Every structure is written in C-alpha cells, then in structure tokens.
Amino acid sequence: MKRSFSAFVTPGVFLCALVLVGCSDDPEVDKGMRSSAGLQKCGQFLGVENVNRAVESVEGGKATATARNSPARLAAILDREAEEWPVDDLLHNSYSACRIQVPAEGGGAFVIEATVQWSVLTVDSMSEPKYAKSWRQLNDQVFVELETGRPSMEILVTCGVPGAAAGQEVGLPLQMAVTDPGLAVDQRQVLLSTFARTLVEELSCAGDPVIPAQLLR
Fold first, then answer.
1. What one-character DSSP code corresponds to residue 125?
2. What is the DSSP string of 16-43?
3. What pLDDT was estimated at residue 206?
4. pTM (2 d.p.)
C-alpha cells in the first residue's frame, strides 16, 4: 500500500510544481501568472513584437495586463450582437480587448488599451461635413480618425456578419481604438492596424476588408 500511495502522490507533486498557479497560495504569484496570461492574449490581439516595443518605450516599472477574452471569444460576442441588432439601435457595448498598465515613477500608471464596439456611426455618415473633417477614407471599407491632439487613434471598418439584419454592414460598422500614454504615431498605428486585422479575420467580415498598415499618411 505504501508503494502504491507513493507512486500516486509523486506525480501529483510533480504536476503541482509544473502548474504553480493552480497550487500556489501566494497571491503575488497568482497575480503574476494572470498578468503573464493577459500579456499573451494582448499579443494575440496586437502582435507580440508590437506589444513588447510599446511596453519597452514607456519608461516605468514591470507591465501588467488584463485581457479577459481571446480574439475568437470576443469575435463570437460581437458576432452575436450584430445578429441581434435592430435598425436604429444606438446602444452598443464597448469591450476592452487588452489593457496594459506600466507603473510610473512617483505613482500612477501608464495605460495602453485596445477597445472595440459596433459603432453608432454609419458609413453613410462619413460623408457628412462634421465627420468628413475628422475622418479620412482609406479605401471603400476603412476610415480612420485624423489626429485629434489626444494620445489615441480610431478606425471604422465595414464588417458584414452573416445572419444580421439587412444594412448591418453599412449601418453598423466595427469601430476599434487604441489609447496610450503618448506613444509615437508609428507605434500607435501599428497596434491599431494589427488589432483591426485580427478582429476582421476572426469575424470573417463580408467583403474581406483590407486594413492598411499605414493608417495616417
């Protein structure tokens, strides 16, 4: 019996060592593992190298990240919302796909965040003077908000979802944004461009929208 019990326990102890987060009672270890998982998911949305460069460019402490959904799960949520959308509905949820915090010297934190929602804007509204001044059309399916003086950038993409109401592709485009502590424009646009391509691919948007790498010319 002793040999049998020992043979049972040893692999369990070994497995516990391998999956420390599941066996640890140390909240700091658990927090670190959750943050590591969050950074990995942020990399899935924004590109691993893009995330690394953005974090490295922000002078501060060790970055932590929150990303509750994988790209596939977030796309499924957005897909369901589009299918249930009635015309003239202006109540659209905004989702944080990735939130990275970098502690700042003297307190506080620098935050880089990528968000997405079905837009209250429409493709037709982009031709109206008040929007035409602030949004630039990059191609038939993509619009980008011009620099506003804020450390952020937004993109609007037509994305037709199978099963949605007629007119959803034009009347309910996808709107994505990246806000940051003041990254270089090149860094900001590569984060947003990668984020947009990731979601467009996961959603299998009708018309296969082409997201340019250079959003601001």
1. G
2. HHHTHHHH---HHHHHHHHHHHHHHHHH
3. 94
4. 0.83
Beta bridge partners of 99: 66, 113
| CB contact at 8 A, 145 and 135 | yes
190 closest CA partner among 53, 37, 75:
53
Single-letter amino acid, residue 123: V
Cα separation, 45 vs 104, whole angstroms = 24
Cβ atoms of 162 and 205 closer than 8 Å: no
3-class DSSP state of 157:
strand
Q: Compute the distance between CA of residue 162 and CA of residue 191 in angstroms, rounded to an integer.
A: 27
CB-CB contact of 206 with 169 (8 Å): yes
Q: Which residues of 138-159 are buried (b: 16+ CB within 10 A; e: fewer)?
A: beebbbbbeeeeeebbbbbbbb
Tell me the β-bridge partners of 117. Answer: 94, 175
Lowest mean pLDDT among 3-7, 100-104, 196-200: 3-7
* CA distances in angstroms from 180 to 57, 111, 158, listed in the order given: 11, 6, 25
Strand, helix or coil for residue 45: helix
H or E element that contains 164: none
Distances (CA, A) of 21 to 27, 33, 65, 92, 202: 9, 6, 16, 36, 29
pLDDT in tens, 148-163: 788 999 999 999 999 9
Reduced to 3 states, what is the DSSP secondary structure of residue 97? strand
Are the C-beta atoms of residues 127 and 135 closer than 8 Å to each other?
no
